[in-house]
């Protein structure tokens, strides 16, 4: 009897260890913890031609950035740079998740697009609104320029579908969220795939300069498990 009990316990333990992400999926937040998300980015011109590819790391943490909003510290890290990057914040609670996209150099124009965002409870047909006041430092020459310090950009989000999608991380259950941003300039848009464990696994932007920019999640690491340090600190 004792031997049988021990055997059952060993089998259960083995099953849990062989699928740790299923356990974590029930317990861990997506972005309010120490994780590293690696994205492949693809840049297309107004004719749909691919002209540049890049790889960015999105490193998150449980460190509070703004006490009043409970945003946590994150950083976009560029190729070949371990720590250098754009320090930013993201928000995750029981009502919503949003992350700030990279916003310098060729990614600056994403400030004028819908931010990756979800509101709970997630279900097909759900809609919500948001607004961002963009600083004129993020204006785009010939496409979106303004005289004041800030210009308002209004976004509308809609959960269009809930299905299993083929992604760079495998076949994942995702919510497809379509969003559009309006202003006195050209409309921009974002189609996002959101998975409850990996977060945003694909982002497909139509930008203010008539171009297309996509992000595909290709790797994820839990820094609490794999590293003895967090590069954010």
Can you offer a commentary on this structure?
By secondary structure, this protein is mainly beta. It has a single domain (about 30-225), classed as YmcC-like fold (Beta Barrel). Helix content is about 10%, strand content about 50%. The protein contains 3 helices and 12 strands. Strands 6-5-4-3-2-1-12-11-10-9-8-7 form a 12-stranded antiparallel sheet. A hairpin with a 7-residue loop joins strand 3 and strand 4 (about 85-90). The longest helix has 17 residues, at about 1-20. The radius of gyration is 20 Å and the shape is globular. The N and C termini lie far apart (about 50 Å). Mean pLDDT is about 85; it is low at about 1-25 and about 225-233.
For the record, the CATH class is Mainly Beta
**Count of extended strands:** 12
Instruction: State the share of residues found in helices, binned by percent.
Output: 10-25%
Instruction: Quickly give the structural class.
Output: mainly beta
Q: What is the number of independent domains? A: 1
CATH topology: YmcC-like fold
- The CATH architecture designation is Beta Barrel
Counting DSSP H or I runs of 4 or more residues, the number of helices is: 3
Strand content: over 45%
Strand line-up in the sheet with most strands: 6-5-4-3-2-1-12-11-10-9-8-7
Shape: globular
Largest sheet: 12 strands, antiparallel
């Amino acid at each position: 009897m004792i031997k049988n009990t021990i055997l059952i316990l060993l089998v259960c333990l083995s099953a849990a260890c062989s699928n740790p992400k299923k356990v974590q999926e029930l317990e861990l937040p997506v972005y309010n913890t120490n994780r590293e998300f690696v994205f492949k980015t693809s840049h297309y011109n107004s004719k749909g031609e691919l002209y540049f590819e890049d790889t960015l790391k999105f490193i998150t943490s449980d460190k509070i950035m703004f006490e009043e909003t409970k945003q946590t510290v994150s950083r976009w890290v560029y190729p070949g740079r371990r720590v250098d990057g754009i320090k930013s914040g993201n928000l995750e609670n029981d009502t919503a998740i949003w992350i700030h996209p990279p916003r310098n150099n060729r990614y600056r124009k994403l400030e004028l697009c819908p931010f990756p965002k979800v509101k709970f409870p997630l279900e097909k047909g759900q809609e919500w609104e948001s607004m961002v006041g963009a600083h004129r430092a993020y204006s785009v020459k010939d496409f979106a320029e303004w005289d004041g310090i800030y210009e308002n950009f209004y976004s509308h989000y809609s959960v269009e579908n809930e299905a299993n999608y083929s992604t760079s991380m495998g076949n994942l259950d995702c919510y497809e969220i379509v969003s559009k941003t309006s202003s006195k300039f050209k409309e921009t848009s974002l189609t996002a795939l959101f998975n409850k464990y990996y977060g945003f696994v694909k982002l497909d932007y139509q930008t203010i300069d008539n171009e297309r920019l996509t992000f595909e999640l290709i790797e994820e690491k839990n820094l609490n498990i794999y590293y003895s340090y967090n590069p954010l600190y």
